[in-house]
Amino acid sequence: MRDSPGFVSNRVLMPMINDAAARVEEGTADAETVDLVFTDCFGHAMGPLRTADLIGLDTVLDSLVVLRETTGDPRFEPTALLRDLVERGHRGRKSGRGFHTYEIR
Length: 105
Prior knowledge:
This protein is mainly α. 57% of the residues lie in helices and 0% in strands. The longest helix has 18 residues, at 8-25.
């Protein structure tokens, strides 16, 4: 195996989250529908956008930016929607709002 930037998990997960966000951004589906496809059709415990909310949208954004800079791969270019959510302080579960809304305890 050869050395490359980022962990395998981030190299696979971040483009999936970014692409899921793009589907919401373009109006193909809302966040709930995107996540339901992954839980109901693929048997995932959590969809990509709920996963992003759990990680923290600011962390996802930072990861995508670093991967884009280090690999040059355009798949890692963050969507405008993701950038906008983070800019507005919607960082996912830790802020109570991201792609979904959460009760902060």
